[in-house]
Amino acid sequence: MIEPYGGRLVHRVLSEPERARREAEAQDLIRVAPPIDQLYDAEKLAIGAYSPLDGFMGAEMLRSVAETGRLPNSLPWSMPIPFPVPPGAANAASVKAGDEVGLVDSQGRLIALLHVEERFALDRKALALATYGTDDPKHPNVADLLGAGEVAWSGRVDLVRRLESPWDRAEPTPAETRAEFERRGWKRVAGYQCRNPPHTAHEYIQRLTLEREDVDGLLIHPVVGRLKKGDYKPAVILEAYDALVRHYYPSDRVMMSPLTITMRYGGPKAALFLAIVRRNYGCAVYIVGRDQAGVGKYYDPYACQRIFDAFDIGVTPARYDESFFCRRCGWMASGKTCNHPLSDRAETSQSRVREALATGTPLPPEILRPEVAEILRRPDVMLT
Ligand SMILES: [Zn+2]
Fold it and tell me: How many angstroms separate the alpha carbon of residue 327 from the centre of ligand 1?
């Protein structure tokens, strides 16, 4: 199986006796309650999803990532992982290098310990420009960044307890997905990034990937971080994929697992980051369709594929053009395999599918599997 990125899987999860001891001592700690996005990052750092990173980035590392797309040790890395101190956090101003801070969730539960190594001013606007190519506050991640604290802490993280999963089942760690791949005898696994229930264009590129000679299995790895209005509920995405796997895929070649991180809509840089994360979960191949991790019109839809030529992260990108059902071909196709005009293509865009579901318009199986459509037609599938 492919090695973790940087060669070693980070594991900074406290053992049970250690956890009990640290929690008893933690009464005196300065506690801050960061936004859920930062708690997701703290958890992912500690379980090795962001290996070789084992803590939040300091000023020098942030500068290196922004200016070169690499960590100071020259390993490609595209996304900054800072810890902006939540504005207004009590006692935060007194925290200095060498202190330990408790990161708590919205209910006050201690999630992680942050060993502060550095305290520095965060140039949020410069970081937004370097990462997302824009400082337009209409970009969702830029808005988050500009609204974050202007001081950041760097430092290693110890995980006290896992966050509650928004799913009805556990979220495996990189070590656990790797163990499961091994149990299944999969050596080369392809990772599939998604944010939505599957329609046929998604299924098509998953199938093309499963047909590859260098792929033993597929990890469907939906990102379900903080949700916004109009997002499908995580359990619905899971159930829809369950239906697809159960009714159509050989179950011994496909596995699904949630990934609770904030979706960074950074186009190419986000795609590269998501591939690095999947490598840590054990994926040697990574599926990159058109406009992965894009939002609005900020990114060239194929820049997310080209970045894999500029930065070698040891993962084989499986790159696909936009695919669709062509009525003339009577098949799923892309511009590489079909010469028919746009008018012959069944519209499979997520927005059109949502519209049809909302208005009760029948959806042909060329667009959505009936078993999936049945789930998506239920009331309350989206966050309102
Ligand atoms: Zn055609």
Answer: 7
Checking if the pLDDT of 379 tops 90, the result is no
Q: Which two tokens stand for residue 327?
A: 């009525």
92 closest CA partner among 19, 160, 150 = 150
Mean pLDDT value of segment 290-315 = 94
Range of the domain at 18: 5-159
Query: For 35-75, where are the alpha helices, taking DSSP H only?
Result: 36-47, 59-68
Q: For residue 328, what are the contacts with CB-CB under 8 A and spacing of at least 6? A: 338, 340, 344
CA of 348 to the centre of ligand 1 (A): 15
Ligand 1 midpoint to CA 296 (Å): 28
Q: How far is the CA of 10 from the centre of ligand 1 (A)?
A: 48
Residue 165 lies in a domain: no
CA of 268 to the centre of ligand 1 (A): 29
Residue 209 Cα to ligand 1 middle (Å):
21
- Ligand 1 midpoint to CA 215 (Å): 27
Angstrom distance (rounded) from CA 364 to CA 202: 15
Which CATH number characterizes residue 371's domain? Answer: 3.40.50.620
Other Cβ atoms less than 10 A from the Cβ of 60: the count is 12
Tens of pLDDT, residue by residue over 24-49, are 887 788 999 999 999 999 999 999 99
Q: How far is CA 125 from the centre of its chain?
A: 23
Query: Rounded to the nearest whole angstrom, what is the distance from the C-alpha of residue 325 to the centroid of ligand 1?
Result: 8
> Does 227 or 119 have the greater pLDDT score?
119
Domain final position from 108, 125, 159: 159
Whether residues 108 and 245 share a domain: the answer is no
* Claim to verify: residue 277 and residue 368 sit in the same structural domain: yes
> pLDDT value at position 355?
83
Residue 338's DSSP bridge partners are none
- 290 alpha carbon – ligand 1 mean position (Å): 19
Question: Per residue in 1-31, pLDDT tens?
Answer: 999 999 999 999 999 999 988 888 877 889 9
Q: How many Å lie between the centroid of ligand 1 and the Cα of residue 208?
A: 17
pLDDT at 226: 80
Determine the Cα–Cα distance for residues 293 and 304; give it in Å rounded to an integer. 8
- For residue 33 the two structure tokens come to 């309650």
Type of residue found at 32: V
